[in-house]
């Protein structure tokens, strides 16, 4: 829970920092940049930080990663929270959602039907739908699943289907960096 408190203060501070547009332009198309810029500024900073850390970890953890996969993995890291554009939530709603999720785990909660809580819980699935519509990863279907399920544990993700070992490794790297940032 301590890291969630630190994350709260980071999210507040991101509102006062400028966006690294050059990093976005290096890995996203113009239409994807248009989409990602719909995120709240704090969420956009979070996505960029996650992607930059993923980039470093890709270089450390993959020996023979193709340039196409490298580009797609960083793009997926940038877009992993894109589902949050459907119903953006503020820092206080996110804090409430985090606490409620921690207390209730997978049980029904008193706030299940509230838009901000649905956005918090289902942004991965919403992001999956958004990115499929614009065919972001036409050559790597598994990346849609990574985005859809990026809050699952590694064990649960692996049980969903027989994923490529590189996809599993990328999922683990994304999840670690998403939790860290």
What is the helix content?
55-70%
What composes the largest sheet?
none
| Tally of individual domains | 1
Low-confidence stretches: none
Strand content: under 5%
Query: What structural category arises from helix and sheet content?
Result: mainly alpha
Give the topology string: H per helix, E per strand: HHHHHHHHHH
Oligomer: single chain
The DSSP helix count reads 10
End-to-end Cα distance: 14 Å
CA-atom Rg in angstroms: 16 Å
Mean pLDDT: 92
Count of distinct strands: 0
Give the overall shape.
globular
How would you briefly describe this protein structure?
The protein has one domain. 69% of the residues lie in helices and 0% in strands. It has helices at 2-14, 21-27, 30-36, 41-61, 67-79, 91-104, 115-133, 142-148, 154-160, 165-180.
